[in-house]
Amino acid sequence: MKNQKFIIVQDADTAHKLMINGFQLVSRANNIYTFMNEIPQHFNFAEIDIKKLVYTDRLVF
């Protein structure tokens, strides 16, 4: 979902994989990780369980 600005993840392993692959972490609160939806150049979504990702335009703290 390229038109959404953020990716939200509640799974720590998935969040860790996103961080390792270059996604910018915006917020971490109560085990909810929010990343910028700017996909790194050589990232492959096949390595991530995309069912654990939520795309949104809203940033809530």
The stretches of 5 or more residues where confidence is low (pLDDT under 50) are none
Structural class: alpha+beta
> Mind summarizing the main beta sheet?
4 strands, antiparallel
Task: Give the overall shape, derived from the CA principal axes.
Answer: globular
Report the helical percentage.
10-25%
Tell me, rounded to a whole number, the average pLDDT. Answer: 90
Total helix count? Answer: 1
Question: How far do the termini sit from each other?
Answer: 22 Å
Order of helices and strands: EHEEE
Q: Strand arrangement, largest sheet?
A: 2-3-1-4
What is the number of beta strands? 4
Beta-strand percent range:
25-35%
CA radius of gyration: 10 Å
Polypeptide structure, described:
- The chain contains one helix and four strands; from the N terminus they run βαβββ.
- The chain has one helix spanning 12-20; strands at residues 6-9, 25-29, 32-36, 53-56.
- A four-stranded antiparallel β-sheet has the order 2-3-1-4, covered by helices on one side.
- The longest helix is centred in the N-terminal third of the chain and has 9 residues, at 12-20.
- The mean pLDDT is 90.
